[in-house]
C-alpha cells in the first residue's frame, strides 16, 4: 500500500515521490547533478544550475523569496497556432490555466512532469548526465483530441553566468559583459560573458578575469526563431507566464552583447491526430578554449549528447538517462531492508540514502533555503556528510577528505568554511570545527580499513605539510590546548550551536557539549594512535579523556541534567534555576554518546530530556525557549521562540538524542522519537499536518517548530541538513545493527518490541552481509553461514564467497 498525503505518494518501490496536486504548501524540490554540474529542480520546473560553485559559477537564475513563487525556471511552452492558446509543460508559470492532468515524479537525479491540457499530453523529464556538464529536458508531446495540430514550441531559460552574489548586488553593471549569438551550423544559442567577478570579497577592485566557459542551448527540432534578450522575449510589464514572443508568435532573432540574458528557441511542428513527437532541449557547458567544431568539421565539444555531425541525439540522451538510473540502482543496493514499518523502509532504502548523497555534494551551500551565496562549504559539514556516502563510494570520500584537509592550519585549527574555486574561506574560531577532522577520518577507516590514507601527505593552509595522521593529531592537540580554567574546551564564538556566539566571545567561556564531543573524538581516535604505534599521543589522549570525565562530572552536573556551558563571566547556562534556556538537549545526549556520564546520571539526563523536551515531532533543542534577549548568551536569544536553535525541534540534535537513547538502553523511546521525526510521518494528512509542515515529505528538514510557537509543526530548511546522515546511520548502524569497526563488523540490532523481525542486506568491504533477525526468540544467538558464533563481531574477510548469511535471534 502506497504511503501518501494529500499532495502525493511514494511508488511501491519508494523510488519516486509522485506529486499529484501542484499547489503544494511550498515548492518541493529535487536535485540533478554529477561531480561538477548541478541543479535544483522543483515540481514546477523551477530552480537554478551551477558548475562547481553555486556562488562563483552560477549558470541560471532563481529569485529567492519572490512572488510569484519559484521563478524563473526551465520552461517549455506549447502554443496552438490555430487557437492562440499557450501553456507550460511544467504547469508553472501558466498556473492560472485549468489543466486536465498534472503529475510530477521526483526520482533519484531526475524529475518528470506530466500535464494534459488543450488536448495535448506533455511529458518533460529533467536530468543531468553522469559524465557530461549539461542538463537535459527530454520532452514527449502526444495529441489526444483526434485532430491534426499545428504547434509552436518555445523553450527558454534565464541565464546568470558567473558570480551569483555579484548578480544580486551589482546586476545593472554586471550585465554589460554578456555575449550571446546564434550558431547556425550548430543550430544553438551560444552564450558567454567577457568578465568574471571571482574576487574574495566585496570590493571595488576589478579582477579583470574572463569567464572561461561557453553555454550551448539547443533543441533537436527545426529552429524557427530565437532570442537572447530577456527584455525583448518577455516584453514590457510582463512575466514568464505571458512572454510577448510566445503570445505574438514572433521571435526577434536578437543576439546581444549586453543586457539581461535569456536563451529562447522557437520551433514549429505539425502533430497528427493521436500521434506523438519526441525531442530534447539541452544546455551544455564547455571551456572556451575547446572549439565546438574542429577543422575537419567533426563536432568536438561538448561531445557526449550529440552525434558525429553535431546534431543532438535522442539515442545518446536516452542512453545517458539509462546510465543515470543504473548509477542509482547501484548506489541504493548498498543497503536494502524489509521491516514491518513502511515509512522506515522508504527512508532507509531510498530517500534517506538519496538525501545523504545530496548533502555530500551540496553541503549546506545550494538549495531553496541555502542560496549558496555566503557560506561556501563548511568543514564540520564536509567531515560529517561522509557518513552517508562512505559505504557506497569510499574512493570519492577519500578524495574529499584529503582536499578538505588543505583548509587546516599547521597549528591544528581550520577554516570554518571555504569556497572551492577561490581557495578561500573564513576563520571563525568555532571551537568544534577542527574536531570534525578526526571524526571523519575515523569513520572512513572504520568503513574501509584503509589505513594507507594516514600516510598521505597533505599541505596545511598556511605553511608546510603533514601526513593525514599528523593532521588528525594536530586537530586533537589544538582542542586540548584551547581549554579554559576549568579544563574544558573554550567555546569562543560558538560550538556546534552557532547561536551561542556570545557565551565565550572574550575567550573565557567553556562548553560542556564541546567537552563531551572532544571526549568522544578522543576515544574514537585511540585505536588509530595505537595502530600507528604513537604511544605518546595514545597516552596523552587517554589521560585527557579521563580528565574530561572528571571535570564534566565535577562542575557540569546540575542535579537532574548537565548544564550547557559557562559564560565569559563564569555564570552557567542550561541550569534549573534559569527562567529561560533551562535544559539543552545536546549536553544530555553527548554525555551518553561520549560515555563520560556515569550510568545513574546518564539515566537522569535522558529522563529529564524526555520530560522537558519531547514534542510530537521530535526533541526540542532547548526549553523553555528564550523570550528575552540575553547578550551574554548570544543570537539564540534573538531567534523567534520555538524556531531554529531557540527551542525548535532541531532535527540534527534530535537525532543525536535517538542515538543516546539507544546507547543508554531505551530502544522503545528511541524508536518512538525516530518515527516522529521521519518526514512522511510528520506531514501526514491529519489535521492538515502537511499544509502546516510545508516542506517536502520525502526528506528531512533542518527543524520543525515546537509548541513554543503558534506555528507548531511548521518545518523549514529542507534537504541540506546534517540530520540526513545521522538518521541514516542510526537506522543502519543501531536499529538494524550493522556497526563497522576497524577490523570488521559488529551485528547488534536494537529494534522495537512491536517488530517481529526484519531482513536486511549491507555491502561491506567487498562482501554482502545478508541479515535475518527474529524478535522474541526463545533462544538468543547469532549464526553466520549456519554456524553459531560467540559474541556479536564478525570479520567478513574470513568467510568465502561474496554473500554472508547472518541470522540473529533476539
UniProtKB/TrEMBL annotation:
Gene3D superfamilies linked to this entry: 1.50.10.10, Glycoside hydrolase, family 65, N-terminal domain, Maltose phosphorylase, domain 3, mpn423 like domain
Keywords, alphabetical: Glycosyltransferase, Transferase
Record's keyword annotation contains Manganese: no
Matches recorded under InterPro entries: 6-hairpin_glycosidase_sf (IPR008928), 6hp_glycosidase-like_sf (IPR012341), Gal_mutarotase_sf_dom (IPR011013), GH65_N (IPR037018), GH94_catalytic (IPR033432), GH94_Enzymes (IPR052047), Glyco_hydrolase_94_b-supersand (IPR010383)
Gene Ontology molecular function, alphabetical: carbohydrate binding; glycosyltransferase activity
GO biological process: carbohydrate metabolic process
Domain Glycosyl hydrolase 94 catalytic: 328-737
Domain Glycosyl hydrolase 94 supersandwich residue range list: 15-286
Record-linked SMART domains: CBM_X
Pfam family, one: GH94_b-supersand
Name the UniProt record assigns to this protein: Glycosyl transferase family 36
Originating species: Pseudanabaena catenata USMAC16
Phylogenetic classification of the source organism: Bacteria, Bacillati, Cyanobacteriota, Cyanophyceae, Pseudanabaenales
Amino acid at each position: 500500500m502506497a504511503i501518501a498525503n494529500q499532495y502525493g505518494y511514494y511508488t511501491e518501490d519508494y523510488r519516486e515521490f509522485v506529486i499529484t496536486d501542484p499547489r503544494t504548501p511550498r515548492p518541493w524540490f529535487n536535485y540533478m547533478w554529477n561531480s561538477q554540474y548541478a541543479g535544483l529542480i522543483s515540481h514546477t520546473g523551477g530552480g537554478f544550475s551551477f558548475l562547481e560553485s553555486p556562488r562563483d559559477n552560477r549558470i541560471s537564475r532563481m529569485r529567492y523569496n519572490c512572488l510569484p513563487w519559484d521563478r524563473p525556471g526551465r520552461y517549455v511552452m506549447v502554443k496552438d497556432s490555430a487557437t492562440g492558446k499557450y501553456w507550460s509543460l511544467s504547469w508553472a508559470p501558466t498556473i492560472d490555466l485549468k489543466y486536465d492532468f498534472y503529475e510530477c515524479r521526483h526520482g533519484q537525479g531526475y524529475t518528470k512532469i506530466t500535464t494534459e491540457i488543450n488536448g495535448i499530453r506533455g511529458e518533460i523529464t529533467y536530468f543531468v548526465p553522469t559524465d557530461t556538464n549539461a542538463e537535459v529536458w527530454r520532452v514527449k508531446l502526444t495529441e489526444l483530441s483526434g485532430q491534426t495540430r499545428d504547434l509552436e514550441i518555445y523553450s527558454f531559460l534565464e541565464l546568470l553566468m558567473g558570480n551569483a552574489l555579484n548578480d544580486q548586488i551589482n546586476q545593472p553593471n554586471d550585465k554589460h559583459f554578456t555575449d550571446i549569438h546564434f550558431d547556425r551550423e550548430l543550430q544553438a544559442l551560444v552564450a558567454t560573458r567577457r568578465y568574471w567577478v571571482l574576487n574574495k570579497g566585496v570590493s571595488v577592485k576589478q579582477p579583470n578575469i574572463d569567464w572561461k566557459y561557453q553555454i550551448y542551448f539547443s533543441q533537436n527540432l527545426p529552429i524557427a526563431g530565437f532570442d537572447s534578450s530577456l527584455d525583448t522575449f518577455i516584453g514590457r510589464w510582463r512575466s514568464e507566464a505571458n512572454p510577448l514572443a510566445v503570445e505574438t508568435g514572433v521571435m526577434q532573432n536578437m543576439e546581444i552583447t549586453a543586457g539581461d540574458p535569456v536563451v529562447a528557441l522557437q520551433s514549429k511542428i505539425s502533430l497528427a491526430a493521436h500521434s506523438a513527437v519526441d525531442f530534447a532541449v539541452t544546455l551544455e557547458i564547455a571551456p572556451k578554449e575547446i572549439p565546438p567544431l574542429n577543422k575537419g568539421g567533426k563536432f568536438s565539444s561538448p561531445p557526449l549528447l550529440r552525434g558525429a555531425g553535431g546534431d543532438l541525439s535522442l539515442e545518446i540522451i536516452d542512453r545517458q538517462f539509462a546510465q543515470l538510473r543504473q548509477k542509482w540502482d547501484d548506489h541504493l543496493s548498498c543497503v536494502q531492508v524489509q521491516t514491518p514499518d513502511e515509512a522506515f523502509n522508504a527512508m532507509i532504502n531510498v530517500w534517506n540514502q538519496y538525501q545523504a548523497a545530496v548533502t555530500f555534494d551540496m553541503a549546506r551551500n545550494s538549495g531553496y533555503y541555502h542560496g549558496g551565496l555566503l557560506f561556501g562549504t563548511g568543514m564540520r559539514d564536509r567531515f560529517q556528510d561522509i557518513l552517508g556516502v562512505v559505504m557506497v563510494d569510499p574512493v570519492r570520500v577519500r578524495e574529499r577528505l584529503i582536499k578538505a584537509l588543505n583548509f587546516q592550519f599547521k597549528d591544528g585549527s581550520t577554516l570554518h568554511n571555504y569556497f572551492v574555486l577561490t581557495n578561500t574561506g573564513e576563520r571563525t574560531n568555532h571551537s568544534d570545527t577542527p574536531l570534525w577532522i578526526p571524526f571523519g577520518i575515523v569513520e572512513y577507516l572504520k568503513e574501509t580499513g584503509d589505513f594507507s590514507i594516514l600516510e598521505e601527505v597533505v599541505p596545511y593552509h598556511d605553511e608546510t605539510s603533514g601526513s593525514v595522521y599528523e593532521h588528525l593529531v594536530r586537530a586533537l592537540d589544538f582542542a586540548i590546548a584551547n581549554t579554559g580554567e576549568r579544563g574544558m574546551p573554550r567555546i569562543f564564538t560558538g560550538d556546534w550551536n552557532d547561536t551561542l556566539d556570545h557565551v565565550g566571545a572574550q575567550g573565557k567561556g567553556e562548553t560542556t557539549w564541546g567537552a563531551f564531543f572532544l571526549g568522544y573524538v578522543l576515544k574514537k581516535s585511540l585505536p588509530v594512535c595505537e595502530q600507528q604505534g604513537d604511544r605518546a599521543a595514545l597516552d596523552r589522549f587517554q589521560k585527557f579523556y579521563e580528565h574530561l570525565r572528571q571535570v564534566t562530572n565535577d562542575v557540569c552536573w546540575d542535579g537532574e541534567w548537565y548544564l550547557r556551558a559557562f559564560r565569559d563571566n563564569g555564570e552557567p547556562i542550561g541550569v534549573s534555576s534559569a527562567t529561560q534556556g533551562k535544559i539543552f538537549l545536546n549536553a544530555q545526549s553527548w554525555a551518553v554518546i561520549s560515555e563520560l556520564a556515569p550510568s545513574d546520571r546518564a539515566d537522569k539526563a535522558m529522563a529529564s530530556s524526555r520530560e522537558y523536551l519531547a514534542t510530537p515531532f521530535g526533541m526540542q533543542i532547548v526549553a523553555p525557549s528564550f523570550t528575552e534577549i540575553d547578550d551574554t548568551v548570544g543570537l539564540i536569544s534573538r531567534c523567534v521562540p520555538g524556531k531554529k536553535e531557540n527551542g525548535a525541534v532541531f532535527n540534527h540534535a534530535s537525532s543525536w538524542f535517538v542515538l543516546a537513547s539507544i546507547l543508554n538502553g531505551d530502544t522503545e523511546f528511541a524508536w518512538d522519537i525516530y518515527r516522529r521525526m521521519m518526514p512522511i510521518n510528520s506531514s501526514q494528512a491529519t489535521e492538515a499536518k502537511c499544509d502546516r509542515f510545508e516542506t517536502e515529505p520525502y526528506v528531512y528538514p533542518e527543524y520543525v517548530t515546537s509548541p513554543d510557537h503558534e506555528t507548531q509543526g511548521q518545518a523549514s530548511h529542507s534537504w541540506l541538513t546534517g540530520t540526513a546522515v545521522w538518521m541514516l546511520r542510526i537506522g543502519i548502524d543501531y536499529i538494524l545493527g550493522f556497526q563497522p569497526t576497524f577490523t570488521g563488523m559488529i551485528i547488534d540490532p536494537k529494534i522495537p518490541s512491536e517488530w517481529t523481525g526484519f531482513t536486511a542486506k549491507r555491502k561491506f568491504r567487498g562482501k554482502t552481509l545478508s541479515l535475518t533477525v527474529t524478535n522474541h526468540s526463545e533462544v538468543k544467538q547469532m549464526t553466520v553461514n549456519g554456524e553459531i558464533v560467540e559474541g556479536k563481531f564478525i570479520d567478513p574477510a574470513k568467510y568465502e564467497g561474496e554473500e554472508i548469511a547472518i541470522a540473529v535471534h533476539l
